[in-house]
Each structure stands twice: as structure tokens, then as C-alpha cells.
Amino acid sequence: MIIGITGTLGAGKGAVVEYLSTKGFAHHSARELITEEILRRGEPVNRDTMTHTANDMRRIHGPTYPQEQLFMRAAAQGKDAVVESVRSVAGAKFMKEHGAYLLAVDADPRLRYERIGKRGSETDQVDFDTFLAHEAREMESDDPHHQNIRGVMALSDYTIENDGTLEELHRKVDDMLAAFGRK
After folding, report:
1. Does residue 71 belong to any structural domain of this protein?
2. What is the CATH number of the domain that holds 57?
3. pTM of the entire structure?
């Protein structure tokens, strides 16, 4: 089973991935794939370079490139895997056409902003208005080479609202796995 995960900024995609890893899922990260490219280019790692580089990779190699690379790595392992995160409609369609499930995670914007402040990533050191601006830029695009989180979320097979405790999130992930036919 391969699950592609998408969702809003700070919604808890990483927490879902961590929980799935305790259930034997291998983790394949778009952030790591893109960061490798940013470092190869000698640029600073921040949200702007992450977005620009991901869009550039899709422009150069095709709109499915990051998910294609990660999906192929996951499939080659031959075990359950989660691909984090799917941000383009073309990437989502590629994964679904190849048998992956797509999970969306969302939560209240204020709660998500509080969460990103706690995780300490270099891409998250922004004020609330900048956080909302970054998200707005990534939520919709007609360009198939750009991020379109709203479009990907609309294609999802399952959505989790992550407004509660970690234990509640784990129960929701278990419910999702059951809906996908895995206990």
C-alpha cells in the first residue's frame, strides 16, 4: 500500500507520517528530495526556495516529477509506504493512476500556525500574516507545474480534520487505514 499525503501547512502531515512509520510504512519525503536539489544549487533552504525549486523541478522534468520519483522509490522497496507531501494535481493524479491512495490533512489556521512555530523548521520562522500568504500562494494555481494544494485535497480519497489530540489523530489514521482495507 502506498499513501500520498497532502494538506494545509502545519496540519499534521508529519505526525501522520510518524504514526504510519510505527505501523511499518516507509517514509519518502518530497521535502528531502527538494532540499537535496536546493543544496546542489547552493541556495538557502527556506519556504521561498522550496516552492521555487519544486516548481522549477516540475517545469524541467514534468509536472509529476517529485511524486513520480518518490513513488518509484516506494514501489521499488516493495513494502507499505507513505509519500509526503503531494502538492500538485498532476502528481496526485499520477499516484492515484498507479494505485496509491491519497490522504488530505487539515486543521484550523491558528492551530496550524501554533504548530509550525513549535517544530522549529527554517521554513516556518514567519509571522501569522506571512504564514497565511505562503499558504495562499500554494493553495491554488492553474499552472500544472505549480503547487495546488486545494486541487490535490479535492482529489483525496480520505480527509482527516486534525483539530484534536495526538491520540485522536492516531484513531483517525486507524480509521483511514481500515477504510483503505488495512488493519
Report:
1. yes
2. 3.40.50.300
3. 0.89
